[in-house]
Write a structure and sequence with these properties.
nine-stranded parallel beta sheet; 9 strands; alpha/beta; 11 helices; 39% helix
Length: 321
């Protein structure tokens, strides 16, 4: 059986896990040893740095895509709040507040297949003003944008584009049919071609297998993704996955550790679902996770910025490189 602590050192020394390797040992390895190895890899590549980002739900609800997990899909009866693109002043006020709280990055996230027209123009104006006035890295998550739109975002000051692959290629048709896995890969590569760093991960606990989770981790490695958000499904009443049981804290921790072994140099980013973890994710920050979305999530309550800074201080970690 593979010694996961020995494997962690081999990864530090340059070895990389690749598609086709027998990775079944990840499923039977002692969890504490797996976490220890992931923490060792994390400390080598990410030192004591934890990246904190916040998001604002810039446009909510009425999304035409039929993603089964999503509160904002028009196909799902979730009672999600619906509103058009927010006024620039509200976005800027939220960004300023988050900058003053000390976070590293701020993202405008919008529901829908793509942000377009006058709403996209207003987003560009907001980014231009944030770039000029705030010490924040700027991110965007706006669906399937064109190459021209991605260029406009970069010129406005956006450095990172978020576009999750959500799950494995095999499992994707079970989750969404209004767009494809290949559509997502195409968007990611187009953003990378524009010179944007891509933030891409997915959701676990949607009925997928462990092999699906490992496949997703390897796909992200092959795409050279350096920011990987891991969400745990929060089953939402009225959505097709609303009946599922939540993933366990131990399974979420094992997932985070596996992603660290397969993507050693990336920021493995805690996202939705931290509240199901035994310690609200504290242990994860020394067991593979080197980043988190903080503050409120899109439609589910998240953590507080102050609370996360308290956790980092307790662990001897910092959000400044």
């Amino acid at each position: 059986m593979t010694d996961v602590l020995e494997l962690s050192q081999r990864i530090i020394d340059g070895y990389r896990i690749k598609r086709g390797d027998d990775l079944s040992f990840f499923l039977t390895a002692d969890l504490e040893k797996l976490e220890a190895g992931a923490g060792k890899i994390q400390r080598h590549f990410r030192k004591n740095h934890v990246d904190l980002c916040t998001i604002i739900n810039g446009r909510s609800g009425r999304c035409p895509e039929n993603c089964k997990y999503c509160a904002q899909s028009a196909h799902n009866k979730t009672g999600c709040e619906e509103y058009p693109f927010l006024p620039k002043e509200k976005i800027l006020a939220e960004a300023k507040s988050n900058a003053e709280a000390g976070v590293n990055r701020f993202a405008i996230v919008t529901a829908g297949r793509a942000l377009s027209g006058s709403e996209f123009d207003r987003a560009i104006e907001a980014y231009q003003e944030m770039r000029a006035t705030l010490p924040l890295g700027l991110c965007a998550s706006m669906g399937f944008l064109s190459a021209e739109q991605l260029h406009r975002l970069r010129m406005a000051g956006v450095s990172n584009y978020h576009h999750n692959i959500e799950t494995s290629r095999r499992n994707f048709p079970n989750i969404c049919t209004t767009h494809t896995y290949d559509d997502k890969i195409r968007e990611i590569k187009m953003a990378q071609a524009e010179g944007l760093q891509v933030c891409s991960g997915g959701i676990v606990g949607m009925g997928e297998t462990w092999e699906d989770r490992i496949d997703m981790a390897i796909s992200l490695s092959e795409l050279h993704i350096l920011s990987i958000p891991i969400n745990a499904l929060m089953p939402i009443p009225g959505s097709p996955l609303g009946h599922l049981h939540q993933i366990s804290s131990d399974d979420l921790m094992r997932t985070i550790a596996i992603f660290r072994y397969i993507n050693p140099e990336a920021d493995i980013r805690l996202a939705a679902g931290r509240k199901i973890m035994k310690d609200f994710g504290e242990k994860a920050f020394v067991s593979g996770a080197s980043a988190t979305i903080t503050g409120d999530m899109l439609t589910t309550s998240g953590t507080t910025i102050r609370g996360d800074f308290e956790i980092l201080k307790k662990l001897g970690l910092t959000n400044r490189e």
